[in-house]
Design goal:
The structure is a homodimer of 513-residue chains. Chain A folds into 3 domains: 242 residues, Bira Bifunctional Protein, Domain 2 (BirA Bifunctional Protein, domain 2); 118 residues, Rossmann fold (3-Layer(aba) Sandwich); 76 residues, Translation Initiation Factor IF3, CATH 3.30.110. The first copy, chain A, contains 13 helices and 27 strands. By secondary structure, the first copy, chain A, is of the alpha+beta class. The longest helix of chain A is centred in the C-terminal third of the chain and has 29 residues. Chain A is globular, with a radius of gyration of 26 Å.
Chain lengths: 513, 513
């Protein structure tokens, strides 16, 4: 038995949902705002989002996509038009109906009846329609194509059951919207975005994902093809962490996005859209969190290294602080993952042990404690968040001399980044069941009382229409969904687990967030 | 007479308001969205905002302020509370009353009467109250102070008369909100933010500003003191380009932001707030624009250098593109203003001359044209946007050899940055009238039919209450306002232009946006 006293009160294996909430709170990432379904993203959570946003934005810019900004309000008429074109159009939206408050005569305020809008405005749930309007103005000829736009924005979808980062009424995201001459070019963009997300998830978030096409029943309403990246959380469930859609000409038709082709004829554009959101942070938590809190991959850690001087409120503090400041400056001059190391000298008031555990829960990759004795010996007490516990249930401190600590910090951060990825990859591989060919086997597997059954890769004949509906229902009874058809899978070589017909491809099946 | 044929159809001196609209449109910065009072910020305009945002954010982070994110929706009750505490509380806000759309049975959509919110939600006009709520939860003792938060967000104020970038219903901004132990610390923060804005405006936007305290009648509702930076536009009007407020304890009282002090007693925090917005881009246009469009200071130009190859759609194009690519790579390896030079090789289809004038209107600091003859001679045709016209009304091209062009680009960009600032400073100084001591002189001066009368610096006795109201009315008749009391002015040495009493300080008077 381990004698470890973990920093959280709930273990992943005991109650994963409760553990998740505790990490969000104990790592000081976010909290309920008191406004239904909306969260406050606190500095540590927002700092991770900013890192993530900047690194994704660099990739978006490098791909030649232009950022811009469209209004938060969308006229109701845009949705009327879309509702005509799109089955499954979602109607849970925040509706603005008035533009003024007025005193109610009883000490309160009410919407002013004289300030009712002629046409209600919708707080954007996504910007397809308003960006489509702009594209119809901005595109005249093939010379204007491709037109590739991206927006970082807040969007609102009225959600009944919310969960911080994973599903909130307001969330932050980027939405790419592009218009092209033909199917091929639009599909190239759709897959480019998918690959951008896949490599970002793995290289930056250290979160292995499966990139693939969603089945027909899981497509974005109105899309011709929807692709996703799917990540396995530590409870074996899948998280759809990003999507990319080829929209054909249906959105162009609805918004009137035409262009004059090279022969002078009028054509409809083919459009695509792609997005990731603050949901990625939920994925980060459920990929890298442990029973001591979050572990932030160094690439997105707002502070990669935190120095904690063990101050005693006495004359010795000055020398200690100066020793720590030299340490900080030395580390700040290092690089890791192609950027200067982000290091904080944390001099906030508080007990050193309490501060250590705060940073453990937040998941700073490396914590350096420096007490009077460390200074005398010219060393630093160094704790790696990914190797927190040593023998005997004690924190696994190393004690390098200061210069060695400084010189090794860059490679160490890179090693942590890599090791988090490998750990997650190995866990995923251990939790994918392959080779099941009979539906009763699948049913037995998921009906069993396994805590975290994981994913199953099976082969199928890609049924459509009512045949697909039947499959979806069958899976739904087990709370399962088809996640996607992986891009890089081996060719099918068996029969379909659902229909018994020859299989045409492999799919992943899982419970999902 | 100059034979110059300018790139815009309207000159600043002919119709400044019309000229402004033309720059916004001709520089491809923004356009009306069709949604009342909201604009679409196009890639060039948004690119400038991103530059500005990143450089301001660097300063905010360097000051130790933490970014975070609060909900876009604020419960009505927060405003009821604020309306009690704050005179002059503005009520023009977007009010969300429903959370679902439903078909109206006639092919349209309406807000679902069954989905009416129990309490309406307000789209944030500013986040004082909701951040105040969080501060009241997050602050327990003096150890938690100062608490310094900042948010980059969109906000909405229902505006009747809108003008792109200057006054729009939705705009983008940052809002800093800080809580402190006492007046001194809160005031230190208020003035730190003010100085951050002042130096940012001058060093980054090349926009000289006067930092100072607003008179009592111009304070933010509820503030104890409001400070601003004021910039002179080319029509001589003032633009309030950023504000910083010391809020005393009134907002802390309303939101219940208490702390336990060092002696164990309960105290109210002193709070401050400070913000700048997309309005700064309006200021940029009216400071640096000319009759050929915008001139973007290199520090905030998304592309500082644009290379235009004069392609002929023939066999020579390949060699020309390769010559241009070497030029691009050479320039990209240079630095200016402490960052790598941002250079674009623009290969979009289109006539070279048309593309040149597009980039002139957008205000790229340096345009490099390369034709076949340039390549043969090993040179580059170089055009500085701040010295566009040469003798005889022709664009003022230089023809440095390519390597020399590359080597000189960094210093040239820095010189352009500096020269735009000096030009604006000299213009402002030439348009401030000083030494007027009698109110009838002031009245005559502003009553005259001068196109751009500029600002006046006068001395006053700092009247308050009804005496101040009288002054404000007197100025209002001339469409004038008191801008601020400059921080660095010479001491008063005369009598008050309004009251005849001994003056205590100097103030700036101007027409304003």
């Amino acid at each position: 038995m381990s004698a470890i006293r973990h920093a959280l009160s709930v273990k992943r294996t005991d109650d994963f949902a409760q553990w998740y909430q505790e990490v969000v709170s104990a790592a000081d990432m976010a909290e309920e705002s008191g406004v239904r379904g909306c969260m406050v993203i606190k500095p540590w959570g927002y700092g991770i989002w900013e890192r993530l946003q900047r690194l994704m934005d660099d990739r978006i810019k490098a791909a030649g996509v232009d950022n811009c900004y469209f209004p938060i309000f969308i006229p109701l008429a845009n949705f009327t038009r879309e509702a005509e074109h799109v089955d499954g159009f979602a109607k849970e939206m925040a509706v603005v109906t008035h533009h003024r408050l007025i005193a109610d005569g009883k000490g309160g305020l009410i919407p002013d009846p004289d300030a009712k809008l002629e046409e209600p405005l919708i707080v954007r749930p996504t910007s397809e329609t308003i960006i489509g309007d702009a594209m119809s103005r901005w595109i005249q000829s093939w010379r204007d194509l491709p037109l590739r736009l991206n927006q970082w924005a807040n969007v609102v979808r009225w959600e009944m059951r919310t969960r911080m980062f994973l599903r909130t009424s307001e969330f932050l995201w980027q939405e790419g919207h592009t218009a092209h001459e033909d199917r091929d070019d639009a599909m190239r963009e759709t897959l480019r975005a998918l690959e951008m997300y896949r490599s970002f998830a793995e290289d930056v978030l250290a979160m292995p994902v499966i990139a693939g096409e969603k089945p027909e029943n899981e497509r974005f309403p109105g899309a011709v093809a929807t692709y996703s990246i799917e990540a396995m959380m530590q409870d074996g469930k899948a998280l759809q962490a990003g999507t990319s859609h080829y929209l054909g000409t249906s959105f162009a038709h609805a918004a009137g996005i035409h262009y004059q082709d090279r022969d002078g004829g009028q054509q409809l554009c083919h459009t695509a859209s792609w997005g990731v959101s603050t949901r990625l942070i939920g994925g980060l938590i459920m990929t890298h969190g442990d029973d001591d809190g979050l572990r932030v991959p160094p690439a997105v850690a707002p502070w990669q290294v935190v120095i904690l001087p063990m101050l005693r409120d006495n004359d010795g503090d000055e020398a200690l602080l100066s020793y720590c400041e030299e340490l900080r400056a030395g580390i700040a001059a290092q690089t890791a993952l192609g950027e200067p190391v982000r290091v904080l000298l944390d001099t906030k008031p508080g007990k050193a042990a309490a501060k250590r555990w705060d940073w453990v829960r937040k998941g700073a990759p490396v914590i350096l404690e420096v007490g009077g004795r460390d200074m005398e010996n010219g060393v630093v007490s160094q704790l790696r968040r990914d190797r927190l516990w040593g023998d005997g249930g004690k924190p696994n401190f190393a004690a390098p001399v200061r210069d060695e600590c400084i010189a090794s910090i860059g490679p160490m951060l890179e090693e942590i980044q890599q090791s988090l990825l490998i750990e997650a990859q190995e866990r995923r591989e251990a939790n994918v069941t392959r080779g099941v060919t009979r539906i009763d086997e699948l049913e037995t597997f998921y009906a069993e009382d396994q805590r975290f059954p994981g994913w199953m890769e099976v082969q199928w004949s890609k049924p459509t229409g009512t045949a697909l509906d039947k499959v979806v229902e069958q899976l739904k009874a087990l709370k399962l969904t088809i996640r996607n058809v992986p891009m890089d899978a081996a060719p099918a070589d068996g029969t379909c687990i659902f229909t018994g017909e020859p299989a045409v491809e492999r799919i992943y099946i899982a419970r999902a967030y």
